[in-house]
Amino acid sequence: MDYERYAIYFTPSGAFGQAGASWLGWDIAQGRQVTPPHIDDFPLADFTETPRKYGFHATIKPPFALASGRNPQELQAAFEAMCKELEPIALAGLNFTWMGGFLALTAEGDTELLNACAAHVVRTLDPFRAPLSPSDLARRQRPNLTDAQQRNLRDWGYPHVMASYRFHMTLTGRVPRRQRDAVGAVALDHLGPHIPRPFLVGDLSLVGQGADGMFHQIQRMRLLG
C-alpha cells in the first residue's frame, strides 16, 4: 500500500488496544473497521467521527509527507534503528481528561522521560519530513499559538512538539459541555477496566495514511535500549 503521510505513534496492543479500536470504530493494527459497542440512546459513532481515521494512539511524531529523495524503506530502517536505542518508559497510569472540548487519555505522573523520548523521535526522523507547503503552513496557523509553538510549526512542521508536547490519546471530537458528563461516563465504563497500571510505553509504531484517508500500522517495534 502507498501512503500519503507517515507518523510515529504509540499504538497499544492487547485488551486495551482492542477496547480502543472498538471505541473509535477503526483498528489501526488490522487496517479495518470495527463495529463500536451499541449503547442505547447514545450516538457513540458521532462523538468519535473526528479521531476515527487516526486509530487509537498517542502521537509521538505528527503526520508528515515524505521528503523528496527519501523512500519508505529508508524511513522504516531509520525507525527500526532508533527503536533499538530507545528505552521503555513506565507511567503511573492514564487519566480521562477534557482537552479544549474533546476527551482524551493523558499521562499520569512524571512525564519528563516520555517528553524527552518524543522530542528525540521528532529530531531523529525529521530529515524524512517534507517541508510544509505555504498553503499547509497557513492552514495550521492559529491565532492562539504561542511564540514557541509558532517556531515549532516553522521548524518541525507542527506546533505541539518539544516543550509544547503533551502525551494524549484522543477519544472524541469536540463535545458540547452539556453532554460531557455522559460521554465521560461511557468512556470510563468501556476503557477504564482495560488500562494497565503502571502503564508501559514499551514500543512505537510506524504508521501511514492510505488513499482511504485512514491510518494503518506499518510496523510496531519494541523499544530495546
TrEMBL record:
Lineage top rank: taxon: Bacteria
One Pfam family here: DUF1045
Protein name, per record: Phosphonate metabolism protein
The organism of origin for this protein: Sulfitobacter delicatus
